Amino acid sequence: MENLKKLIVCLLVLVMAVGLVGCGSKEKTGENASTNSETSTETSTETTKTDTSDKKDGFVIGFANGYFGNTWRSQLVEDFENAAKEYKKDGIIKDYMISNTNNDVTEQINQIITMIDAGVDALMIDAVSPTSIKAVVDMAKNKGILVVVTNDPAAYEGTYAVCGNNYSWQKIQAIWLTEQLQEKGNIVEISGVSGNAADILRQQANKDVLSNYPDIKILTSVPGNWSQTDAQSVMTTILSSYDNIDGVLAQDVMAEGIIKAYETAGKTPTIMTGDYTKTFFQKWSEMPDLNSIGVPYAPGVSATALHVTVKLLQGEKLKEDILQPNPMDENLKNTILTDPPYVVTKDGDPEAPWMEGLVGTKAITLDEAIEIMKDSPDTAALDGWLTAEDVSEFFE
Amino acid sequence: MLNIFKKVKKWSTLPALVLFLLFLMIYIGISGKFTLSFLNSFISTNTPAICVAIGVAATIIIGGTDISLGSIVTLTNVIIVTLVGKNYSVITAVLLALLFATLAGLFNGLLIGVMRINPLLTTFATSTVFSGIALWLLPYPGGMIPYFYSDWYNSKFLNLIPIPVIMIALPLVIWLIFMKLPFGIKAYALGRDVKKAYASGINVTAIRLLIHTFAGFASGIAGICISASMCAGNPKVGDTMSMNSIAAAVIGGVSLSGGVGGVWGAIFGSLFLSILISIVVSANMSSYVQSFVQAIILLLGVICTVMASDKEIKNKITRLWKKEDGQNE
Amino acid sequence: MNNSAKKSNDILKNPYLPAISVSVVLLIVGQILTKGFLSQNNISSIMMTTAILTLASMAQAAVVISGDMGLDMSVGAIMSLTALFGPMIIFKSNAITMIVAVVSVVLMGAFVGLLNGIGVQYLKIVPLVMTLIMSSVVNGFALFITKGQPSVSVSKTLQGVGAVVFGPLRVLTLIVIILLFVLEIFMLRRSKYGRSLFLAGNNRNAADLCGINSRKVILIAYVFSGLISGLAGLMLVGYAGSAQMQMANQYTMLSVAAVVIGGTNLAGGKGSLIGGALGSLVLILITNILQALNMPAGLRSLIQGIILVGILMINSRSPKLRQ
Q1: How far is B64 from chain C (nearest CA, A)?
Q2: How far is C257 from chain B (nearest CA, A)?
Q3: Do A256 and C297 touch (CB under 8 A)?
Q4: Residues of A with CB under 8 A from a CB of C
Q5: Does an H or E element contain A329, and which?
Q6: Contacts of A21 (CB under 8 A, 6+ apart)
Q7: Average pLDDT, stretch A331-337?
Q8: What residues pair up with A329 in beta bridges, in sequence order?
Q9: Which of A6, A31, A220, A303 yields a CA-CA distance of 20 to 30 A from C133?
Q10: From start to end of B119-229, where are the E strands?
């Protein structure tokens, strides 16, 4: 009887297993070791990436993404995948692995050790938190695996980072706002998630820019948590408490919530920083009195990062002055910071004061933005990335 | 009496063990190899989750739950990092943090045992309190623990047993000692039926107090391990551990109605959940399918375990087979 | 003399009194701390968020009353699901597509509720675990179908839930209030189903002996929960005007807290929908005030936790075993 029960359980489990293996949508092209029945001790560590300079193709790359709860992140992963597929066609990449987790530190570590075990040549990691991946970074370095931190900065010796430039991204919007207000007025600041690295950098950018304009007063500064509903809620409270607001200085993923708060209160926003999704652009085009700006914080940074990774794997050397201090640790100069691909305003002026000093950024009009996005899903972000050719400019 | 308890415990663990071994083999099949280094990393990565699963299993066995353990893990990590930042020695910081974790468990025990508040609600409220304290102490990820801490964690005791295994052994051994004492039977009896247990003179309050303190201690150990893995602090590190550990325990055959199951089941359940993650990554499924598949397998796994230990279903199948070939056991 | 003393005694014993008085206190505190707190705009916004949470807590209340440690941890996930898919059904701005949308989201939610109920009643999986895993399945499903990039434009008709009816009262708030009273009276209090639900929640065996099909009654409770959660998701997206993945996930735990604050017993067999509504109000007020105070997130969380522990110590103690 006991045996029967065990049998039934085993059968059920077998059904699950068959279903699971059948679900795998890609063939695993990794090597099948003939010694898979024995355990093999760790091979002595080879030296680092300089050894792989003989190999120019056939790389295996793993991409570990730490958050998957919004469209932006889906685009991040999709941009990586599209770029990787191109490389796969040319044989430069033999295979790639992608893993996603929702802010689960342990799950991400499990996913990364699986990739390490599968024998990847490089790991691109968008970490759940800047401090959570030390153990796997060490493991990867010990095995000679290249580690490129992607999108969310994290500072570890012996790795590279490719991230969007949060500081300059926010600076553009702050300068734009001061120009629109003609250097005086009352504003409210709506920030992101308190304590997040990106948020800290952006708030600093605001502070630095506004310190030059003493006639612009910040009535209040509240976190909107990069959530439309939270932003709507705090903006409602703000609108109830102040009736002399000239402008709103916010971050991304919150503009529609802010507009909704205005609408529900029976008011219209005049000057506010905007967003870069298709729905926002459409909304903006329906509001002729709205003066706004849309600066994409592009998920395409993953594609840029992939190009960088491939070149590094191929043994190329980065130019002297390309690497900048890591946003998480000033003393570590290992980061390539990317500027936004576009700046969207109603008139798209490329000579405007906020466009100064940007690399590879195009000023476009609202109509052009809508045209670019006409086939995208509604919640998609206006996206862009550096091509492989652009990236080769970074290398000697 | 003791024998029956042992039998029940053993049976309830089996599905989790089978699931884990089977999926481990699937992983080996898909990845094509099985290295000692992978096993090593796998265990040391999942030690925190396993410790929490042991803690939560204890609270479930006595007929309650505890969804605050993840926040206690976070709190431990944050306290270690904060104290090290204030120039305490690592050892002092670790021991103090462990003490706080145990006290947190005691706090739960007081509310549940002495004030008799529903365990789910209590720990829901206390998890907000603990994670609030953690977030207040360390608003964003940061801090630094000297790297020799993680070196120690990755080393072997007496060059033989990896430290992570010792860390798992700490709460496990304590639990096994509990089981050997009369305390063990009383705990299970309490889980089975509160009123009957009380009527037979069992000190319900004391057991609840002790078990929840134990769960806090186990979470403290988990916090120590995860701090070693990161060598830094993260105020949200334990967020998902609370619910994951309950799922692990349930798959491990620990019944939420109480009095059934053992911590070994929780350990294997936890291992199963982790190897599932590795399989999903290794099988190279498309991103959009990964979480769906993981959730479905989890569902099937729980159904499996619950059905395998459900008396009614066992009886139905028994009767079915007895009818078919009139065989005796 | 005696009569009026008795009446005031009755008022004091009203189970809703603590929640109501706390709400009044909070409103006053809010106004003291932030000017403009009691303004029409702010109040109407608070009422709308409370209305959505009330729907979620109604769903939760039904399941909790059904007993056996009944809980629905998939409320938030179902809401997120219908928040995403609901607007996709409304492709034209007219009344008929609205009705179709409402029916569809309600059916979607009811289906998930049905799965929950089956898992709990027939597969004997504990509600906490079944609904928890179900929420992962639902989230994974939403991700799978939309490929993480949902195409959601929320039509003007749906956004009309934010339209003003009278003073601070908006369409959404009005709908929920009507629904609340209708369901409380006709489903819980006056119907046979309601009585069966309370009995089954209170003592399953006794209910079975009385000839009540407990299994069916409890199953219906889970279906009801999914159904209402589905509706809540649609209301949420109408209020917010846009949708994101997993936008309602926090509502799960909030609905549990609301139900408890409102006096529903987690062991089952006792409680009310109105209690859940009042609990929702208290919760939203606390959250709003703490948010307006702009304190660090950790401190906010800590205070919310302490308040909750305090409420539990007063409200939810089980009787001494000695009895």
Answers
A1: 11
A2: 8
A3: no
A4: 68-71, 73-75, 77-78, 194-195, 220-223, 227-229, 232-234, 236-237, 239-242, 256-257, 259-261, 263-266, 279, 282, 377-380
A5: strand A329-338
A6: B26, B29, B30, B283
A7: 93
A8: A326
A9: A6
A10: 156-157, 161-162
pLDDT at C201 exceeding the cut of 80? yes
Which ipTM was obtained for this model? Answer: 0.87
- Interface contact flag, B36 A41, Cβ < 8 Å: yes
What are the tens digits of pLDDT across the range A291-314?
Answer: 999 999 999 999 999 999 999 999
* Structure confidence by residue, pLDDT tens digits, B291-312: 888 888 888 888 888 777 766 6
Percentage of the residues of chain C whose pLDDT score is greater than 90: 26
- pLDDT, tens digit, for every residue of C53-78? 999 999 999 999 988 788 899 999 99
Could you report the per-residue pLDDT of C215-252, keeping only the tens digit for each? Answer: 899 999 999 999 999 999 999 988 888 788 888 888 99
Residue B47 sits in which domain range? Answer: 2-325
The CATH code of domain A166-293 reads 3.40.50.2300
CA C185 to chain centre: 17
Report d(CA A59, CA A146) in Å as an integer: 11
Query: In which element (H, E) is residue C323 found?
Result: none
Query: Would the pLDDT of A41 be above 60?
Result: no
- By CB atoms closer than 10 A (0-12, 13-18, 19+), residue A32 is exposed
Domain ranges of chain C: 46-268
CB B130 within 8 A of CB B68: yes
Work out the angle between the directed axes of helices A134-142 and B36-61 (0-180°, nearest 10): 160
Q: Cα separation of B77 and A108, whole Å?
A: 18
Taking an 8 Å cut-off on Cβ atoms, the answer to whether A266 and C41 are in contact is yes
Q: What is the pTM of this model?
A: 0.85
- Say which residue, B257 or B151, is predicted with more confidence: B151
Where residue B28 sits, what CATH number does that domain have? Answer: 1.10.3470
The number of distinct structural domains making up chain B is 1
pLDDT value at residue C4: 64
Q: Which residues of C touch A378 (CB under 8 A)?
A: 150-153
Q: Where in chain A is the domain with CATH 3.40.50.2300?
A: 55-165+299-339+383-392, 166-293
Q: Which chains pack against B, by 3+ Cβ pairs within 8 A?
A: A, C
Q: Tell the burial category of A321 from Cβ atoms under 10 Å away from its Cβ (0-12, 13-18, 19+).
A: exposed
- C70: closest chain B residue by CA: B120
Q: Which residues of B touch A104 (CB under 8 A)?
A: 239-240, 244
